[in-house]
Amino acid sequence: MDLMLLITVLMIILLIWNYWRADIIALTIMAVLGITQVLPVDKLFSGFSSTAVIAIIAAMIIGAGIEKAGVMQLFTTQLERHTPNRPVILTLILSMLTALMSGILSSAGAISLMMPTINRLAVKRKIPKSRLLMPIGFCAIAGSTITLVGSGSLLVFNDLLLHHHYSGLKSINLFTLTPISLVGLFALFLSFLFLFRFLPNTEKSHIRYGADSDQFRKIYGHGGHFFEVKVPKNHALLSMDGIS
Predict the structure, then answer these.
(1) Smallest Cα–Cα separation from 79: which of 51, 34, 116, 31?
(2) Residue 61 near residue 109 (C-beta atoms within 8 A)
């Protein structure tokens, strides 16, 4: 028991230190558990038989695929073109979309995908980012309960019901909590619709939208180097989509 506690504390320290990747730490700890005989060797990979583990891994893969494919960039461009220039309406649209994504990818995955979009729209529409993040954050948490796969705690709870057969308790279906979740989301939308003007504004002045490293860092989370390039007329680059 003491050895198990020591290994758990070591794992937590390594994750907080963040020097190595989380998957490398997890595999290392799993190997240590086998070497020290804390777990029998034939039980080391039993966690992969859990539906909760596989569902969470699948959500991570889907989120990474969406990000790498550039879907969010196209999504942001369409929002810039077609959403009205009203902060309340834009906030509700972003909150609704984030809540729907949370039902598939979990709240943390949805927020991480939406952050570049939120930053970019906040800068272009001159809306304090603090006023966008609070409603979106609440709706992401509530939206994670739309489906079973959106909430890690629900997945673990359902996995316990499936494998341990507690008397009088049935397992949860994919959309069991959807009606309750939608009612809660609707209440949140109404609340923020009327209370939007009272949300905190932590930005003292609006930032300028332009191509400089500080602005790039505010929108995308990291800085960069910028170069000016002159393209002559009738160049092949001008025939490409999105270049004018």
Answers:
(1) 116
(2) no
For the ranges 69-83, 131-145, 153-167, the maximum mean pLDDT occurs at: 131-145
What is d(CA 54, CA 149) in angstroms, rounded to the nearest whole number?
10
| Max CA distance (Å), the chain | 76
For tokens 């490293």, name the residue.
213
Give the domain extent around 148. Answer: 50-207
For the whole prediction, is pTM greater than 0.90?
no
Short-list 129, 109, 110, CA closest to 121: 129
225 lies in some domain? no
- 74 lies in some domain: yes
Residue 213 lies in a domain: no
113, 70 Cβ separation under 8 angstroms: no
Domain assignment of residue 219, yes or no? no
Same domain, 4 and 60: no
Report the chain's C-alpha Rg in angstroms: 23
